[in-house]
Amino acid sequence: MKTPALLALSGRRIPTLSPGASSFPHHRATLRLSEKFILLLILSAFITLCFGAFFFLPDNSKHKRFDLGLEDVLIPHIDSPKEGKHTSGQVVIHGQGGHDEHRHREEEESLRDKIRADHERALQEAKEKLRKSREELQAEIQTEKNKVMEDLKKKDAGPKPLPPVPLPKVVGVSDGEPPEPDAKERRDKIREMMKHAWDSYRQYGWGHNELKPLAKKGHSTNIFGNSQLGATIVDALDTLYIMGLHDEFKDGQDWIEQNLDFGVNAEVSVFEVNIRFIGGLLAAYYLSGQEMFKLKAVQLAEKLLPAFNTPTGIPWAMVNLKSGVGRNWGWASAGSSILAEFGTLHMEFVHLTYLTGNPAYYQKVMHIRKLLAKMDRPNGLYPNYLNPRTGRWGQHHTSVGGLGDSFYEYLLKAWLMSDKTDTEARRTYDDAIEAIERHLIRKSNGGLTFIGEWKNGHLERKMGHLACFAGGMFALGADGSPDDKAGHYLQLGAEIAHTCHESYDRTVLKLGPEAFKFDSGLEAVAVRQNEKYYILRPEVIETYWYMWRFTHDPKYRQWGWEAAQAIDKYCRVSGGFSGVKDVYSSNPTYDDVQQSFFLAETLKEHLPVVIIGVSLPLRWNEAPPFREHTLCDKLLPFKRTPPLGDGLRLPWRRKNNPVDQSHASPRRIGTKLNSRISHLYDLPTMKV
């Protein structure tokens, strides 16, 4: 046996190599158990994947349909059952299979032929349309639109028709001529001015809200949003009717029926839309008896109701007709609503309840009145601003002119409209007028009575053109005033009328400025350049009308005629009538706007002033027939004879009148039929 050799240096043993033995490790012939198990798992997973994939393959038969022609896709072949085989649980009788297959093929072929014919016809129609002119295509498109609109009207007739409302006998159109020699000439002149204004709008601005008579194109302001609602058409209808311009009235009626759509995406003034549109439509309804006007008024009123969705129930100044979202003017004090706006809804909304039986309209305006009755008023005055969120007054600014005017007017006319039964309205009016007399009405050094503006405890000795309506209001409210003050208020009305006449007479054009002062030796004269303009306003003429009716003093007729002549001389242009920027300049520049209220109020109120012995049914709202033609003027049919008589009649008659007058109502003529004139007549009692 050999001993291991030792290394000389390290002393380590070196293993002995046995002769014949391999120097490499031995290789195993089989796999270990763990390795077999891993291999088996891999193989099983592969088999499972392949087997499972078979079930998820798409159905190739469905993809084959893409290889078919269009007709094969639209008209799939119907597989006929084979003879003697069961299909869907039924037995196909021998001998019928071939017949059914033949019948299915015939039906399939017939359907293919029909589709081919339809395609060929559509192609032919397209070729014919390409050959047509642009005008022919537009006419065809309009015809299709009209057809669709008619179909929609038939389908959307509303949940239930509005109840019929008894209308008084026609008032305002009869035979007869004015008794005075010059009355016929003046009457015809006012009528001619109306026709010039209307014809110009008809030619250059039809369908637009207003007219730019110099540029001879349509005009609109932000009070109507970005929509073309035909404000002049709706606003002027009652004036056209009373003046006997029945062809023009019919043109307006047709446009409203076919084109007036309140579903537009437009943000409009609740106040302006109420007095111009709802008042105008109701007035037209009361005059003509045409149900379409009433339905349109109700449709629009429904669009305004979302404006009342505020924490206090005081409506927003503006509302989007489509979305119902409301907001206030950005310039209004502390985000407030305006007294003259939310306070000038009463008459129209009461009439809507009267006509529809829906109490919502009446409840909305009565809520406003009750809320105001609970509030404290500084010095008994109503500030012009009220926040609809908090129910608190904004800036303590009180005015009988802009921002406040028609609130007081509507209180009085609500009392008259109720046949003098709405004592709450009368009491509120009397209290307000007493505070106005105490704090706002003063006499100048020259002896002119004026109505100033109260601002944070101080009186500004300035009166606006808008405040000139108050002369007529004081006279109208004389009857029924407390403590036997009828004579006092009639005299106050006369003094205001005189002051406003002086504001006209002291200008070069004999037209009144927008505002005039009584300070530093100035009497009824505008100082600022931005107060020297005249935009065809009606308030002074309205007061002349009331004073003439109550006193029959001929000076009011003469003053009215002088104003009409000045308007015709300085405001008339080839394309209509325009406001002027400086009434103190002999060469005035124009503002290039023919306001809708010029036709609805100014010209309407000129008519009865210049014609002696003529009483017109006027709008009860703001425009006499309703003063600004809010509903009142436009709508309230009068119940009794005016206290000063004369009867209601127009001095001209149109033969073969196409408009049915059997349902005309003097009221609207007064409200928008107006508030302005309504006072002359007794309105039908309205129990709500």
Write up this protein.
With 688 residues, the protein is mainly α. It has a single domain, classed as Glycosyltransferase (Alpha/alpha barrel), CATH 1.50.10. It has a three-stranded antiparallel β-sheet with strand order 5-6-7. Strand 3 and strand 4 (217-219) form a beta hairpin. Residues 1-26, 62-75, 80-95, 168-175, 614-621 and 623-688 have low confidence and may be disordered.
Q: What best-fitting shape do the alpha-carbon axes yield?
A: elongated
What is the tally of helical segments?
22
Indicate the percent of residues in helices: 40-55%
Determine the N-to-C terminus distance: 139 Å
> How many separate structural domains?
1
- CATH fold assignment: Glycosyltransferase
- Give the overall pLDDT as a whole number: 80
- SS-based structural class? mainly alpha
Spans with pLDDT under 50 lasting ≥5 residues? 1-26, 62-75, 80-95, 168-175, 614-621, 623-688
Which CATH architecture would you pick? Answer: Alpha/alpha barrel
Give Rg in angstroms: 42 Å
CATH class: Mainly Alpha
Quantity of strands, as a count: 20
Main sheet: which strands, in order across? 5-6-7
Largest sheet: 3 strands, antiparallel
Binned strand content: 5-15%
